[in-house]
Specification:
14 helices, three-stranded mixed β-sheet, single chain, mainly alpha, about 55% helix, three-stranded antiparallel β-sheet, about 280 residues, globular
Length: about 280
């Protein structure tokens, strides 16, 4: 088991020349993997779905390593939706862009249809589309407020999902795209003969997963501000509301810290090069 953990971890570091510059801690044995998994699971930086669950953190890290993701990248970008292990669409795009045969991606989005074209070296382009008519036929718009409010973004992610899975199955290794799985209707299965298995709800909360994706994709305070009306009108379970509130706070803190770090780096660079930020006097 430790040999497997070591082999998987090392593959992340040696994946490319750029990866070899990574100086963060990467576990190389099973014991190190479990230790860092426990540290992450009990830290404030751990996503709520993994909080207090070192075993789940460990499995997410290992699955991320198979895709070329570092430990914290895996924790932030891998999700389990209705028992399916998934990766968020933006992270999946990063994975395939790191593939040696990746050449180009082109996305065209209108009010009615989204088209994603993926180019892979030595192969024909893969072109996939998803339209409003497709969404209506699948019942997505009728049961999801996010599809009603952000149709272009949702069309884009669905077309991208199809194209990525068809063009780079070797890079994604069969893992599903979270935005797509979030639209699936949950069906409970009774696997015990003559005994009805208990369940509470046959439908997953797609609004929750789509709002989580939107929050994870936010890169500045304006993005967060734009999401406030949707967060305030969200009518899901209280536990899901609390998760979204916490994710919103964590994202705001992360953006603030990133802005402060960039400002500090700029000030340090200016001091190092003796740059005066005032205009010269005559």
């Amino acid at each position: 088991m430790s040999q497997l953990a070591q082999k998987t971890s090392l593959s992340v570091v040696e994946k490319s020349g750029a990866e070899s510059q990574y100086t963060g801690f990467v576990p190389k044995t099973f014991e190190e993997s479990m230790k860092i998994s426990s540290m992450i699971a009990n830290s404030d930086l751990c996503p709520k779905d993994f909080k207090g669950k070192p075993e789940s953190v460990f499995l997410a890290i290992q699955m991320g390593a198979d895709l070329g993701l570092k430990p914290m990248q895996a924790i932030q970008n891998i999700a389990v939706i209705n028992g399916r292990t998934c990766i968020w669409g933006d992270a999946a795009l990063a994975v395939i862009k790191g593939h040696p045969e990746f050449q180009d991606i082109e996305e065209v989005i209108t009010d009615k249809i989204a088209t994603c074209t993926l180019s892979r070296k030595g192969r024909k382009d893969v072109i996939r589309t998803f339209s409003i008519d497709d969404a209506n036929a699948a019942g997505l718009i009728a049961r999801s407020n996010v599809w009603k409010q952000y149709p272009k973004r949702m069309l884009q992610m669905r077309a991208r999902s199809f194209a990525m899975r068809d063009a780079f199955p070797d890079a994604l290794r069969g893992i599903k795209i979270a935005e797509e799985v979030g639209d699936y209707q949950h069906i409970e299965r009774n696997v015990t003969p003559y005994v009805q298995q208990p369940h509470e709800d046959k439908n997953i909360d797609t609004d929750y997963f789509n709002l989580s994706d939107a929050l994870n994709s936010a890169t500045n305070f304006d993005d967060l501000q734009a999401l406030l009306p949707d967060l305030q009108s969200y009518s899901g379970a209280e536990v899901q509301k609390n998760k979204l509130r916490q994710l919103y706070k964590e994202k705001m803190i992360a953006i603030k810290e990133e802005d402060e770090a960039q400002e500090a780096a700029l000030n340090q660079a200016m001091e190092k090069n003796n740059v005066d930020d005032t205009l010269p006097t005559e």
